[in-house]
Each structure stands twice: as C-alpha cells, then as structure tokens.
Specification:
There is one protein chain. With about 140 residues, this protein is mostly helical. It contains two helices and no strands.
C-alpha cells in the first residue's frame, strides 16, 4: 500500500481543541478511509456535472467527425468532377486531332489534284498553243 502525504489541515494544540461530533465523523468516515466513490454517493445533478466534460468532448468529437466527413465528401466530389472534365477534354482533344489529320489528308489530296490539274492545263496550253500557231487564224489548221 502506498502512503501519500497530503495536507489534512490538522493542527496540534496544547489545550483541548474542538473535535468533530460522532455524526460528523460518521459522515466523513467513508471518504477519509478512501473507499471508492459509487453513483449512490452523488445526486443526479452532481453526476451530470461530473459527466459534463466527457459529454462535451464527445459532442465536439461528433461535430468534428461530421465536418471531416462532409469535407472529405466535398473533396471527393470535386475530384470526381475534375476527373470527368479532364476525360471530356481529352476526348475533345482526340476528336480535334482526328479532324486535323483528316483535314490535312483532304488538303494534301486537294493539293495533289490541283497540281495534276495545273500540269494538265499546261499540257493543253502547250498542245493548243502549237496548234494555234499552225492554224489559219480561225482556230483550224
């Protein structure tokens, strides 16, 4: 058993001091000998007062957990929205790139057709030009 020193507010005096009555001793005895408290030792109001710090801490924890859960849900919703937007932007980028490639193929093909038409026109001009120089002026040879 561990002995603890504490101030009991006891004074030693030479002459007789005042002693507690038997009723006072009887009331103080359960607390003096160190028996553990039980709920029966307290009034309902005292019990509520003793429980108040734990109750307040539990309420604060519930509030904190609810706020944390709400923030996590909000953050996840924002992440999902951002991911959806990113995926849409990527699909749009791929579509735009596919269109660019198709347009480039069309441009190259049209350029080749134009070059071929220019060659054909040059051939016609050379052919027609040599016939025109041999004609009689009315477009006939």
């Amino acid at each position: 058993r561990t002995v603890r020193q504490c101030d009991l507010d006891i004074r030693l005096v030479r002459d007789g001091g005042t002693c507690p009555t038997d009723a006072e001793v009887e009331l103080m005895l359960p607390y003096i000998k160190g028996d553990p408290f039980t709920y029966a030792d307290f009034t309902p109001e005292q019990i509520v007062e003793l429980q108040r710090p734990a109750t307040e801490a539990a309420n604060q924890l519930e509030t904190f957990e609810a706020e944390t859960t709400r923030r996590l849900d909000d953050a996840e919703n924002e992440r999902a929205t951002a991911e959806s937007r990113r995926a849409t932007a990527e699909r749009n980028r791929v579509t735009a790139e596919d269109n660019r490639v198709a347009n480039e193929k069309t441009r190259v093909s049209a350029e080749a057709e134009r070059a071929e038409a220019d060659k054909e026109a040059d051939r016609r001009d050379r052919t027609c030009g040599s016939r025109a120089s041999k004609s009689d002026g009315r477009g006939r040879p």
